[in-house]
Amino acid sequence: MSLGSSSHLSRGLSLLFLAGIVTAESSEDGIPVTDPLVIAKCGTCHASDERGNMQRISWARSTPEGWQDVLKDMIVMNSLSVTPEEARPIVKYLSTAHGLAPEESKPVMFDAERRVREETNIPTDTLRDACGKCHTFARVLSWRRSPAEWKQFADSHSKRYQVRPKPEAEAVAFLTKAAPLHTPEWDAWNAGTGAPPLTGRWLVTTAMPGRGQYYGEMQVSRTGEDEFNTSVSLTSVKDGSRLLRTGRSTVYGGTAWRGRSAGAPISPDDPSSDAREVLWIAADHSSAEGRWFWGQYQEFGFDVKLRRPAAGPTPLIVDRSSLKTGSRANRVRVIGQNFPAGVTPADLTMGPGVVVRAIVSSSPGEIVADVDVAADAQPGKRDVVLRGSSSVLAGAIAVYDRIDYLKVTPESAMAAFGDPAHPRGFQQFEAVGYQRGPDGKVHTADDVELGPVDVTWALQVFHAPEDSSSDFVGKMSPSGLLSPSTSNPNSNFDTWVIATARDDKGADGEPLVGKAYVVVTIPTYVFNGRQYVRDLDRWVDDGPAPH
Amino acid sequence: MNEKMKNSFLAWLFVFSGVVAVPHAAEAHHGWEEFDSTSEVTFQGTVTDFHFTNPHCVVDFNVKDEKGQVHKWQGEFYSPFELGRKGWTAATLQPGDKLTIAGHPAKNGALAIHITSIRANGKEIKP
Is residue A197 helix, strand or coil? Predict the structure, then answer.
């Protein structure tokens, strides 16, 4: 067995060959493998040295998804025989003893969270071409290896996938520095791993595109050393509706939460849907963040943040994200816990130019205030601070003079028609207002995000005759959900998703309009005898085309 | 990378450039064949929006005709990755920028061009 190699060496040859590799890799200390099941299942091919280092495995670390991919690879390519009951503890052991420290896994979490993200950290065009054509660069950086192991991996990977131009030298030079086996973060983290202290009560804040913000609690109970049951109660900030979810989770290496939870869904975009949970847990176990997601293409999901309750007053969320200069008596709800009795306007501050005129009501879980904004207040983000609280809602409210443009997010996206084997792929959009920022230009880094804007939605196929219907491609819901047509027209369509503001107008006096570019695709296609299916923003080879 | 992902991006490019033999692919995501490459038109216009998006970047611009009537045009060209390599960003074109823009017109008469050159605010920007 070898990691990432397509060739299956005969047992005798492999042992001779691998003995040499172990010697070569020994120039850098490996991570001894101590788990009996891993030794039994992997040791047939991966030779061990006298220190317990197993060839290749001892010089690599990764996420649960990384090790799971390797195990699948070994089963498919190298005929490894493992049962599901054996596979789970193998992945658990490897992603714990050969895992990533929280600081190492956080930058690559978006890959496990199934988010589409433009990657700007790929160092060269060669590596962008070699790696980025087939998968995210985050997938590469979710591994840590010794220099010898990076070289062997790059050589075998390049050979297996016929990567041209050959990127091995450039890749190894970069990755041995960017993703080394031994790091101070890993040394510090590995020394302290154990059963993670996660049981009990957590405060939850979430946001779901098209549905808005939710807040609530999660109760966690332990069912094994690193396995948990969960019960979540959430309340919508927008309409007060309640969600109840129950689930189970495994925590790998004390930091990687991987679970499933469900409620009682009645539609594809129902926030009660059965969801995969991927969370990054902070090193001190006081907070966690990530995504709960579902859908044929994981297109639906919550952005989730957890934190441990504090003893004192804790503001969690504000019900509005922006306030206009010169406006008066804006009603603002601050939601949290342990708010004291008798809150006064002087106890609540929202930054320069924003005056809390009156406290309309207060309870342990909510403060309602009337707020004025000075006509000459400087546009920008403001912190919300409650006196006596140790936590601050940083940048929770934006002050603006006018909405300069609407950004429809995601700005470019895919949706898919369905067929008997593939459910439709939906796409949720949201129209977000922006102020141009101090530089006076739009679409620059200093633009101020103002939050969701009330809009109407429309769909328009590129180059279609004016006033023609685009219903044959799909329809937009009032909340911005694109539902492709149920009949597959066997074609792809470039379309604009168009948001028109109900109330807000641009400098020309016309309603603000924002657009996103979405390609509504066929679910599969055949090329050179192979069938391709969609995976997030890429097409992947799904094997020989069915006859 | 798993076995499934081999050649995925190449496949993406093929299917979205109308090259691959998918049924009705020519009617699918428009490749540049929707534009008449034998003809070129040039306009003086004003930028209304710039979409630095995949799979193509798009410039929305207004053109005023001799009668003073304003027509809303759409110009399409490279991907953000390709433009980014030439130094472009989402802020390269701003609403209100004055344009001289040339390109191949859409064959079906839609107010759309495949951009071949842009001069904004008197300065040429080569895609």
Answer: coil
C-alpha pair distances (Å), A419 with each of A42, A149, A486, A523, B16: 40, 43, 8, 7, 20
Question: Quick one: closest CA in A to B82, which residue?
Answer: A125
Task: Please check whether residue A527 touches B, CB under 8 A.
Answer: yes
Are A344 and A357 contacting, i.e. CB atoms less than 8 angstroms apart?
no
Give domain status of residue A6, yes or no. Answer: no
Tell me what pLDDT residue A192 has.
58
Say what angle helices A168-178 and A125-132 make with each other, to 10 degrees: 90
Alpha helices in A125-254, H assignment, sequence order: 125-132, 137-141, 147-160, 168-178, 184-192
> Is the ipTM above a cut-off of 0.85?
no
Name the strand (E) or helix (H) holding A292.
strand A287-294
Domain map (residue ranges) of chain B: 1-30, 32-125
| Sign of the torsion formed by the C-alpha atoms of A103, A104, A109 and A112 | negative
Using an 8 Å Cβ cutoff, are A39 and A191 in contact? no
**Positive/negative CA dihedral, B7, B13, B18, B22:** positive
Instruction: Give B42→chain A minimum CA distance, Å.
Output: 19
pLDDT tens for chain B, 127 residues long, are 333 333 333 333 333 333 332 333 323 355 788 899 999 999 999 999 999 998 899 999 999 999 999 999 999 998 888 888 888 999 999 999 999 999 999 999 999 999 999 998 777 887 7
Label residue B81 left, alpha or beta by phi (over 0 means left) and psi (-120 to 50 means alpha): alpha
**Cβ count near B39 (within 10 Å):** 11
pLDDT at B123: 78
Residue type at A393?
L
Residue A435 lies in a domain: yes
Taking the domain B32-125, which CATH number applies?
Answer: 2.40.50.140
Taking the Cβ of residue A526 and every Cβ of chain B, the question of whether any pair is shorter than 8 Å is answered with yes
Substitution target in A6, A472, A527, A537 with the highest count of B β-carbons within 10 Å is A527
- Which pLDDT value is given to residue A193? 61
Would you state the pLDDT for residue A320? Answer: 94
Of A139, A444, A519, the CB nearest to B55: A519
How many domains are there within chain A? 4
Q: Which domain holds residue A362?
A: 318-400
> pTM for this one?
0.86
Query: At CA A20, angle to CA A16 and CA A26, rounded to 5?
Result: 140
Q: Is B96 exposed, middle or buried (0-12, 13-18, 19+ CB in 10 A)?
A: exposed
Residue A509, Cα to own-chain centre: how many angstroms?
A: 38
CB contact under 8 A, B14 and A412: no
Taking CB atoms and an 8 Å limit, are B4 and A542 in contact across chains?
A: yes
Residues A38 and A180 occupy one common structural domain: yes
Q: What number of residues does chain B have?
A: 127
Residue A348 and residue A387 in contact, taking contact as beta carbons nearer than 8 Å: yes
Walking along chain A (547 residues) 10 residues at a time, the average pLDDT comes out as 38 41 64 96 94 96 96 91 94 94 96 88 85 88 96 90 82 95 92 78 96 96 94 96 95 94 87 95 95 94 95 95 97 96 96 97 97 97 94 95 96 91 92 96 96 96 87 95 92 95 91 96 86 80 80
Return d(Cα A488, Cα A473) in angstroms, integer. 9
Contact yes or no for B15 and A525 at CB 8 A = yes
Q: How is residue A84 written in tokens? A: 């599901």
Task: State both tokens at A191.
Answer: 């020394």
Partners of residue A307 on adjacent β-strands: A203, A287
Judge whether A545 lies within some domain.
Answer: no
What CATH number is associated with residue A323? 2.60.40.10
- The verdict on A154 and A102 lying in the same domain is yes
